[in-house]
């Protein structure tokens, strides 16, 4: 106790006799670290005391917090001033000596460096410096060369950040963590769940869209194959017509050759007849007669065959059948144009879908819109239309080829619809002529059936035509060797159709 009393008297005497600042404050500096801390606090006090009157007012504290410490006003000045509106250096020193931060250990300073300053890379430097709570005023006062030399911090941004954090704990006490915001956690969890759900939903929709689009592409490919099949069938029709023309030319050449052979047979028969008359003996005349009879018999057979082969129906029937074929071709062209329009529309929509698939938003938009179903419906309609047109073309080609073969004259190869119309309807004042020549293919069938309905007023004429035309067809089938019941039924049906046309 006596020693402590002596030391106290000694320090008081030193304070009275020496101008050292450490002995001019209470409590006095007890170590070299306290001396550096006091000097740093004096420097901080000078920075905060703008009017240099020796005290820090509330306004000066607020201005220092906002401008120098770059913090929003959060009533921190109340913690510094409390009831004192005029803080001197000694009061600032007393507040620091009684602060909890002043008594921080090295571990607490290192935890503050990592958790609040967020500069853990300088932890080793602080350990080598043996930094504790009493070292923080030197950092807060930005003592020259302290952070650069002793703490080895060269980054100016890190220096500034460390200074501001040190000022905060030196002036206002230990840092406090803000209260945990459960609402933010809830919003974060909801956002994460919504994000994961959105990604999952987008993935599912993208997969479904790809499957749907793949199915649509397959339908489009089948549609293209149907279109190619139609083109192939049309080419086949053109080749068949070309072969038909070739056969017609060969038939004409064969008929001419047969006529020449008949004429040669007749000349040979005449020659034999002359030889018969000039023969002297009865045996020679008999031999010549037999030869002449045989030649005449062969000539008659060839003549009969030639007559049967060259027999033809009335030209008007051929013209009416050709007109019927051309009208049906007009209907087919209209149907084909409609199918091609459906195909073009489906292709355009499919190309639009392909372009939209280039982006994720476009894929989602396609997946949620009804355009895929509409395009599927259009592709299905175009495919059905092409299949129907192809079947119609195949059936029409087969049917008219059979009719040409039965009738023995060309029908599909003709002078054209305008020429046939002008030939079959010569009267320009007749209503049917204007209807036939001016109506479009879309309306031709309606007026054509009306004309057929008007023919119902002449049943006797139709019956006579059937009675006249049916025996000819029956005879024709016998000549060609067509005794089958199916062929006879087809001929009867053809008779009825032709009678309606005529």
TrEMBL record:
CDD domains: SOAR. One of its GO terms (molecular function) is calcium ion binding. The chain crosses the membrane at residues 485-501. Residues 1-19 form the signal peptide. The keyword Coiled coil applies. Residues 213-310 form a coiled coil. Keywords: Calcium, Calcium transport, Coiled coil, Glycoprotein, Ion transport, Membrane, Metal-binding, Phosphoprotein, Signal, Transmembrane, Transmembrane helix, Transport. It is found in: Endomembrane system. GO terms for cellular component: endoplasmic reticulum; plasma membrane. Residues 104-162 form the SAM domain. It holds the Pfam family SAM_2. It is a single-pass type I membrane protein. GO terms for biological process: intracellular calcium ion homeostasis; regulation of transport; store-operated calcium entry. It comes from the Eukaryota. This is SAM domain-containing protein. It comes from Denticeps clupeoides (denticle herring). The lineage of its organism: Eukaryota, Metazoa, Chordata, Craniata, Vertebrata. The gene is stim2a.
């Amino acid at each position: 106790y006596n020693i402590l009393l002596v030391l106290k008297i000694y320090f008081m005497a030193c304070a009275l006799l020496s101008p050292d600042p450490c002995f001019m404050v209470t409590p006095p500096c007890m170590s070299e670290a306290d001396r550096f801390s006091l000097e740093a606090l004096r420097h901080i006090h000078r920075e905060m005391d703008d009017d240099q009157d020796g005290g820090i007012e509330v306004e000066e504290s607020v201005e220092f917090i906002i401008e120098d410490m770059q913090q929003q006003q959060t009533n921190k000045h109340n913690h510094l001033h409390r009831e004192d509106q005029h803080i001197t250096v000694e009061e600032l020193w007393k507040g620091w000596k009684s602060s909890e931060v002043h008594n921080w250990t090295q571990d607490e300073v290192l935890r503050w460096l990592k958790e609040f300053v967020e500069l853990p890379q300088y932890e080793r430097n602080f350990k080598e410096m043996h930094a504790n709570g009493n070292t923080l005023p030197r950092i807060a006062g930005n003592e020259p060369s302290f952070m650069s030399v002793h703490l080895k911090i060269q980054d100016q941004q890190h220096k500034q950040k460390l200074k501001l954090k040190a000022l905060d704990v030196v002036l206002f006490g230990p840092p406090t963590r803000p209260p945990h915001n459960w609402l933010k956690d809830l919003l974060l969890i909801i956002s994460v769940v919504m994000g994961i759900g959105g990604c999952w939903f987008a993935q599912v929709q993208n997969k479904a869209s790809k499957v749907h689009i793949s199915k649509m592409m397959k339908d489009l490919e089948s549609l293209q194959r149907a279109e190619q099949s139609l083109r192939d069938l049309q080419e086949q029709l053109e080749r068949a017509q070309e072969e038909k023309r070739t056969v017609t030319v060969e038939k004409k050449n064969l008929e001419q050759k047969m006529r020449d052979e008949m004429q040669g047979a007749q000349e040979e028969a005449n020659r034999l007849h002359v030889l018969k008359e000039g023969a002297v003996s009865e045996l020679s005349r008999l031999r010549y007669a037999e030869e002449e009879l045989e030649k005449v018999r062969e000539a008659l057979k060839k003549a009969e065959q030639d007559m049967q082969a060259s027999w033809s129906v009335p030209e008007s029937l051929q013209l009416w059948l050709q007109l019927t074929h051309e009208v049906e071709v007009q209907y087919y062209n209209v149907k084909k144009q409609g199918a091609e329009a459906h195909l073009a529309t489906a292709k355009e929509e499919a190309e639009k879908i392909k372009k939209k698939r280039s982006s994720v938003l476009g894929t989602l938009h396609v997946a949620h819109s009804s355009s895929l179903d509409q395009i599927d419906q259009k592709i299905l309609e175009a495919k059905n239309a092409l299949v129907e047109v192809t079947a119609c073309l195949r059936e029409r080609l087969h049917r008219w080829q059979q009719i040409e073969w039965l009738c023995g004259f060309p029908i599909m190869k003709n002078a054209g619809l305008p020429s046939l119309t002008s030939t079959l309807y010569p009267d320009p004042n007749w209503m049917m002529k204007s209807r036939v020549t001016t109506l479009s293919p879309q309306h031709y069938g309606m007026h054509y059936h009306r004309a057929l309905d008007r023919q119902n007023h002449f049943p006797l004429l139709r019956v006579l035509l059937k009675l006249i035309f049916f025996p000819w067809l029956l005879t024709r089938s016998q000549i060609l060797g067509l005794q089958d019941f199916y062929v006879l039924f087809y001929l009867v049906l053809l008779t009825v159709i032709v009678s309606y046309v005529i």
